[in-house]
Q: What sequence folds into this?
C-alpha cells in the first residue's frame, strides 16, 4: 500500500500535469481566436460601415485601383484611380505631386469571382474523378497488387506539397499542353490536389452503407451497377458531399498551386468579357488568395494600404471559414444522427 | 398491370441480351477503375514532369561551370577570395572598436575621451585597410577582362547552338550564314596570367607592410578588447601565411583542366551559394535553402509538438464531454485557416510583436536581443506551428482514442491513477501513432509555401550558427519559398528555371520519404494495439 502523503503528493502532481495540458490546449485556441479577432476587427472596419446598408458595397463590387495620395490646399487627399482623373479634369492647371500606391483603392470583386470560378471548376473535376475512384475501390476492387498501388499512390499524393502541385501543373498544363496561365490549368491543378481527400472521404461514406442493402438488391436480381446506383449511392452521397466541403475550403484557400497556373495579379476585364466562348477557359483570373499575397508583400504596410490588406484578408477568411464551418457542423450532426 | 411487376424481379420480362448487359456492366466497372488509376497516373506524372523539366539542369549547370573555368572567372575568384578575407579582417577590426566603445560608454566616459583613447587604434585600422588597395585594383582589372571573355564565349556558344538547331531543321544555307567569331583565348589568357605575377608582387608588398604594422600595433585599454585584438593578430598572420598558397594555386591553374560531370550534381547538392541573375557567375547550391527549410520546420515542430500532443492527451483523456465537443471542432476549424492569411497576419502582427518584444527592457539580459529583422525563422516557425498543431492534434487524438479500453481498465485495476495510466500505458501504446502524427505534421510544415514566403525574411544565406540560440532570429529563404518567388520571373528552359524544378524534385523526395516513414509508424501502431 502506498503511504497517504505519497498519495496526496501524486494527486497534486496529477492535477498540475493536467493543468499544463489544459493550458496548452487553451493556448492553441487563444492564438487562433486572436487571429480571428484581429482580422475580424481591423478588416471589419473596411467591410462594414456605420450607415445603412452597413456593408461596404463598393469594396465588394469594384475592381482594385491604384490609390493616389497628395496634399491639396492643406488637406490630405486620397483618391482612387478613376476619381483622381475626374478630380484632375475638375481642377485644370493644378499640379499636384501624388504618391501612387498600387491596388490600394477600389475593391476586390474580380478576385471573388475568380476564386469562385476556380473552386467550382476544380471541385466538379475532383468530385467526378474522386467519387468514381471511391466507388471502384469500395464496390468493385478486390485486394491485389494494383489496388495496393492505387492506395499507396493516394496516401502519398495527399502528402505532396502544394507548391509541387503548382510546379507540376505549370510543367504539364501550362507548358506541355500549351494552355498558358488559364482557368482550366488552375482547375486541373487544384482538382488533382484535393483528389486524395475526396477519395478518402467518399470511400469512408460508401463503406458506411451496410452490406445488407447491397446484398438485398443483388438477391433480387439487380445488377452491380443498379445496386450501386439505387441502393448505395443515395445513402452515401450526403456523407460524401459533407466531407467534400472541407475540400472546397482547401481549394479556395490554396495560393501556391495557382500562382503560376491560373492567377494574375491584375486584370482589367471580368472573366465573362471574352471574345469567343472558348477563350473563357483559357484566360487567367484574379484570385483572392493571390491578391492577398500580392497586397501583403508587394506594397508597403501603412495607413493607406491597411484597408485593402485587412479587408481582403477578412473577406477571404470569412468565406473559407464559412465553408469549413458548414462542413464541420453538418458532419457533427450526421455523426449523431446516422446509425445503421 | 401497374404495381404488379417491377423490372427488378428475378427474371425480367424484356431484357437486353445478356451479353450487352454484361458488356455495359463491364464498361461501367472499367470506367470507375480507370478513375481509380488517376491517382497513380498523377503521381507518376508529377515525377515525370519534375524530371522532365528539371533533369536538363545538370547538363546546363555543367556548361555553366565549364564556362566559369574557361573564361577565367575561377582564376579571378582565387584572388578575389584573398581580397575578401582582407576585408573580413578589416570588418573584425571595426567590431573590436565597437566593443571597446561600448565598454567605455558603460564606464560613462565622454565621447572625446573615447575617441582620444582609440586614436592610435583607428590609425592602425585605416592603415590596415589601405594595405589592400593594390589588391582591390588588381581584382577589378581582372574582373573586367574575365567577364569580357565570358561574354564573348557565351555569345559564341549561343550562335553555335543556333547553328546546330538550324542544321537539325535542314536549313543548311541559313546555318552556313552564321559566322562564329574567332576568340583568341590564348592571348586573353596570357594577359590574365600576368595577373599571377602582379599578384605575387602585390601580396609580397602587402605582407611586408602588414608585418611592419603588426609589429607597431597599439595596445587597447580594455583587457577583453586586447584579447580579441590578439586573436585578430593571429588570424592576420594566418592570412598572410596563406597568401603563397593562393599564388601557387594561380600558377598551377589552367583553363583547360576538365571539370568532371559529377561536379554539376555535387555543386547542386552541396553548394553553399544560391546566386542567380548575377553579372559574374550564377551558383545553384541548394544547401542554404535546405538549411532554411529545416530550421523553420524545426522551430515550428518544437512549438507544435508539445502543444499538439498535450492538447490531444487533454481532449482524449482529461477533458469533459462538453469541452471535447467544443475543442475538437475548433482545432479542426483552425486547420482551415488559409495559409496566405496566416502569412499576412505574420507580416502585419507577429513580426512586429516579436521585434517589439526583443526591444523591451524585460528581455535585456538576452545577448542576441534586440533583433534587427522582424521577419525571421522564429516568426515563420510560430505561424507554421499553428498550422501543424491541428494535423498533429487530430491524428494523435485518433491514436490515443484507439487504444483498447482493456489497457486502461487493466491499469486502473492495478491501482494506477489517471496520470500514471496515461504516462505508462496509453501514451506508450499509441506512441507509434503519435510519432506518425508528428511526421505528418512535419510533412505539412516543410511543404508549406505562403507562410515562409511572407514571413521567413527571404535572405538566401546559411544562417550564422555561431550565434547559438540567436540563430533562429535570422532571416532565411526556403525551398518552397524560392520556387514561389522566382518561378514567375525566370526564362523557360534556362538553367535557373531547371534549377527550380530540381529544388521541387528534392522537396518532393523529402516529403515522400517523410510520408513513407509515417506510414511505417502507422502500421506499427496497428500491430501494437492488436
A:
Amino acid at each position: 500500500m502506498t503511504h497517504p502523503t505519497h498519495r496526496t503528493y501524486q494527486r497534486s502532481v496529477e492535477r498540475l500535469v493536467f493543468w499544463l495540458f489544459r493550458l496548452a490546449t487553451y493556448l492553441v485556441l487563444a492564438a487562433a481566436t486572436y487571429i480571428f479577432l484581429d482580422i475580424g476587427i481591423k478588416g471589419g472596419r473596411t467591410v462594414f460601415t456605420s450607415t445603412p446598408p452597413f456593408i461596404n458595397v463598393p469594396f465588394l463590387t469594384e475592381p482594385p485601383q491604384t490609390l493616389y495620395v497628395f496634399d491639396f490646399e492643406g488637406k490630405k487627399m486620397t483618391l482612387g484611380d478613376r476619381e483622381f482623373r475626374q478630380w484632375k479634369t475638375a481642377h485644370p492647371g493644378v499640379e499636384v505631386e501624388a504618391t501612387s500606391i498600387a491596388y490600394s483603392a477600389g475593391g476586390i470583386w474580380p478576385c471573388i469571382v475568380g476564386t469562385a470560378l476556380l473552386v467550382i471548376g476544380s471541385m466538379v473535376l475532383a468530385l467526378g474523378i474522386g467519387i468514381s475512384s471511391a466507388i471502384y475501390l469500395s464496390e468493385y476492387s478486390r485486394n491485389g497488387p494494383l489496388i495496393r498501388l492505387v492506395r499507396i499512390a493516394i496516401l502519398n499524393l495527399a502528402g505532396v506539397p502544394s507548391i509541387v502541385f503548382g510546379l507540376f501543373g505549370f510543367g504539364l498544363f501550362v507548358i506541355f499542353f500549351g494552355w498558358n496561365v488559364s482557368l482550366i490549368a488552375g482547375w486541373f491543378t487544384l482538382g488533382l490536389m484535393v483528389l486524395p481527400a475526396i477519395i478518402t472521404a467518399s470511400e469512408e461514406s460508401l463503406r458506411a452503407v451496410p452490406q445488407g442493402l447491397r446484398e438485398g438488391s443483388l438477391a433480387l436480381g439487380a445488377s452491380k451497377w443498379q445496386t450501386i446506383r439505387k441502393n448505395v449511392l443515395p445513402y452515401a452521397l450526403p456523407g460524401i458531399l459533407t466531407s467534400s466541403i472541407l475540400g472546397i475550403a482547401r481549394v479556395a484557400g490554396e495560393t501556391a498551386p495557382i500562382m503560376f497556373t491560373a492567377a494574375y495579379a491584375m486584370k482589367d476585364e471580368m472573366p465573362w468579357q471574352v471574345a469567343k466562348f472558348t477563350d473563357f477557359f483559357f484566360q487567367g483570373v484574379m484570385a483572392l488568395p493571390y491578391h492577398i499575397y500580392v497586397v501583403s508583400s508587394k506594397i508597403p504596410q501603412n495607413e493607406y494600404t491597411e484597408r485593402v490588406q485587412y479587408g481582403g484578408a477578412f473577406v477571404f477568411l470569412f468565406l473559407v471559414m464559412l465553408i469549413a464551418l458548414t462542413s464541420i457542423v453538418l458532419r457533427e450532426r450526421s455523426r449523431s444522427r446516422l446509425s445503421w | 398491370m401497374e404495381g404488379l411487376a417491377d423490372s427488378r424481379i428475378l427474371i425480367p420480362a424484356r431484357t437486353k441480351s445478356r451479353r450487352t448487359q454484361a458488356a455495359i456492366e463491364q464498361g461501367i466497372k472499367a470506367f470507375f477503375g480507370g478513375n481509380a488509376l488517376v491517382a497513380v497516373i498523377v503521381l507518376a506524372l508529377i515525377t515525370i514532369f519534375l524530371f522532365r523539366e528539371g533533369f536538363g539542369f545538370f547538363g546546363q549547370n555543367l556548361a555553366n561551370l565549364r564556362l566559369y573555368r574557361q573564361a577565367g572567372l575561377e582564376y579571378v575568384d582565387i584572388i578575389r577570395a584573398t581580397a575578401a578575407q582582407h576585408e573580413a579582417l578589416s570588418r573584425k577590426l571595426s567590431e573590436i572598436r565597437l566593443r571597446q566603445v561600448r565598454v567605455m560608454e558603460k564606464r560613462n566616459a565622454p565621447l572625446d575621451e573615447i575617441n582620444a583613447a582609440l586614436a592610435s587604434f583607428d590609425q592602425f585600422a585605416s592603415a590596415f585597410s589601405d594595405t589592400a588597395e593594390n589588391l582591390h585594383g588588381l581584382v577589378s582589372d581582372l574582373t573586367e577582362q574575365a567577364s569580357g571573355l565570358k561574354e564573348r564565349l557565351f555569345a559564341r556558344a549561343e550562335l553555335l547552338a543556333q547553328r546546330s538547331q538550324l542544321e537539325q531543321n535542314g536549313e543548311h544555307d541559313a546555318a552556313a550564314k552564321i559566322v562564329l567569331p574567332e576568340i583568341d583565348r590564348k592571348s586573353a589568357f596570357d594577359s590574365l596570367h600576368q595577373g599571377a605575377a602582379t599578384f605575387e608582387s602585390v601580396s609580397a608588398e602587402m605582407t611586408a607592410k602588414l608585418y611592419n604594422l603588426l609589429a607597431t600595433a597599439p595596445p587597447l585599454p580594455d583587457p577583453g578588447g586586447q584579447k580579441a585584438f590578439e586573436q585578430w593578430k593571429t588570424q592576420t598572420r594566418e592570412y598572410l601565411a596563406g597568401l603563397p598558397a593562393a599564388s601557387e594555386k594561380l600558377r598551377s591553374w589552367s583553363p583547360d583542366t576538365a571539370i568532371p560531370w559529377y561536379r554539376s550534381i555535387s555543386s547542386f547538392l552541396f553548394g553553399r551559394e544560391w546566386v542567380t541573375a548575377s553579372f559574374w557567375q550564377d551558383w545553384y547550391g541548394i544547401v542554404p535553402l535546405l538549411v532554411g527549410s529545416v530550421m523553420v520546420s524545426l522551430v515550428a515542430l518544437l512549438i507544435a509538438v508539445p502543444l499538439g500532443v498535450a492538447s490531444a492527451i487533454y481532449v482524449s483523456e482529461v477533458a469533459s464531454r462538453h469541452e471535447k465537443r467544443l475543442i475538437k471542432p475548433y482545432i479542426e476549424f483552425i486547420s482551415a485557416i488559409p495559409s496566405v492569411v496566416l502569412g499576412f497576419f505574420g507580416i502585419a502582427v507577429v513580426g512586429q510583436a516579436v521585434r517589439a518584444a526583443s526591444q523591451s527592457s524585460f528581455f535585456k539580459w538576452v545577448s542576441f536581443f534586440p533583433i534587427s529583422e522582424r521577419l525571421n525563422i522564429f516568426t515563420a516557425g510560430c505561424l507554421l506551428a499553428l498550422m501543424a498543431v491541428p494535423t498533429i492534434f487530430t491524428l494523435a487524438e485518433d491514436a490515443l482514442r484507439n487504444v483498447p479500453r482493456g489497457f486502461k481498465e487493466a491499469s486502473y485495476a492495478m491501482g494506477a491513477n489517471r496520470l500514471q495510466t496515461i504516462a505508462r500505458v496509453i501514451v506508450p501504446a499509441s506512441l507509434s501513432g503519435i510519432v506518425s502524427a508528428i511526421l505528418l505534421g512535419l510533412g505539412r510544415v516543410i511543404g508549406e509555401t505562403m507562410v515562409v514566403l511572407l514571413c521567413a525574411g527571404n535572405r538566401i544565406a546559411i544562417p550564422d550558427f555561431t550565434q547559438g540560440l540567436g540563430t533562429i532570429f535570422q532571416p532565411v529563404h526556403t525551398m518552397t519559398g524560392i520556387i514561389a518567388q522566382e518561378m514567375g520571373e525566370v526564362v523557360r528552359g534556362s538553367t535557373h528555371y531547371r534549377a527550380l524544378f530540381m529544388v521541387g524534385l528534392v522537396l518532393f523526395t523529402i516529403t515522400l520519404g517523410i510520408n513513407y516513414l509515417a506510414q511505417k509508424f502507422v502500421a506499427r501502431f496497428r500491430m501494437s494495439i492488436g
Observations:
- Chain B touches chain A through 91 residues (CB under 8 Å).
- The beta strands of chain B are 274-275, 283-284.
